[in-house]
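User: Predict the full complex structure for these chains.
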Amino acid sequence: MPESVRALVERFKPAVSVRPYGAVFTNTSEFMNIGYGDVIDLGGKHYLVLGDESERRFGMEDPKFWVKRCIEMECGQYRILKLEFQESFDQHIGPLTITCHRSAAKEARILRLVAGDPRFMQGQGVKDSGGNMVRVLERVAGRRLDLNIEDIHTSHREYFFDVYPGILERYMAACQAIHHLHQHGETHGDIRRDHLYVDHKTGDYCWIDFDYGYDSVENPFGLDLFGLGNILSFISGKGVHAIQDVDTAALSITEDDCALFFRHRVVNLKKIFPYIPEDLNRVFMHYSAASEVFYETVPELLADLEPCLDHLRRA
Amino acid sequence: MDFKNILISVDASDNALRAVDYAATILAGAQGVRVTLLFIERAPNRDKFENEDAWLNQCRLDHDRVFDFLTKARSVLVAAGLPAEAVSERTVLCSAEPSIAQTILDVQQEGGYGTLVVGRRGLTKGEEFLFGSVSSKLVHNAKNCAVWVVQ
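Assistant: Here is the predicted structure of the two-chain assembly.
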């Protein structure tokens, strides 16, 4: 390791145990070989690798070897480096299988588009010496929205009348942010509730992770609209309500009351929480197995939600 | 609109070939009919490919596939009895916006086509939500023309 980089490691190495003075990488093609203690030299800056990022879903930890937790040694700030990992894979949405691809170029493009926009994670794409598009990301100073909602320990009724209007309003702003991408010919591509964060300071919502893409289709925003509906259902129900968790007979819940793609999830929330206004429930029902009409654009969804928010505010 | 001025929208799929076969059967022996085979070309998503060469290669493959399809579709129509000079082909480039359906409708309006023929994939409700359906949009939005949807 060069003396100059060694001095930076000395100055910025974290208090935790780190293998000192690993290798310096300017080409990240072999990202499996880059581990803690190594340094990635990129765009004139040096990133000390602390470890691989991992995703925790369904109680399982899934390591992402191409995503490195780092310290940018020139400033001492925490960074996440997403190294280029081009892959295609099948994604399953209920009974459907969709071929999806991971694209560093797409994410770098969106980062440029949303630079300075607090509704999105911030960072930039930088090419390494091997021509790989590395995304250098800032840490989102916030917490996942779904975890925040799960931590609200009140009845649904109290939540719905006291807390939910504020959440819905901010969520609608987050939907508007997605529309901003669509207006520029981009899609988020992976809208799920663990990809939406709440800013610690402002309370506003911030989207992360834009590297998923799909083949062009007639309805290019369908998958994003589908994701927005899932989150809407989650925030409105204060969680997911599976048919096995409710008394389907007493509530007269049928297959038509469940989500189009997840037939065990109830989206006709009014049957569980009768105080939910009809106009809002109608929005949920556009995502049900019974629906014949679907949202194709964010403005269509927001046009239906806006009067609902007004009603909730007046209630 | 001239109903004998017919636009068959194709995409090199089996569904499109069924639409061409159907039109050939119906139009065999018809007098004064003109048919345009329309292909809306949309480049494969560049993000999906590792480099420019891989993407260009896919573009070439797609182009060849469509060329072969249009040649075959023309021969089906001519073999059914349509005069060769009554059949033409047209390719129109389309980006993400407007949609393929809208591009077809634009061509239909500009060309004064009174009949629009299209194949149908037979999507499930879920697929239609996520991916959208060209044939459904055509049926809903076409003006001043008959739409033949062939399953």
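Chain B is about 45% helix and 25% strand.
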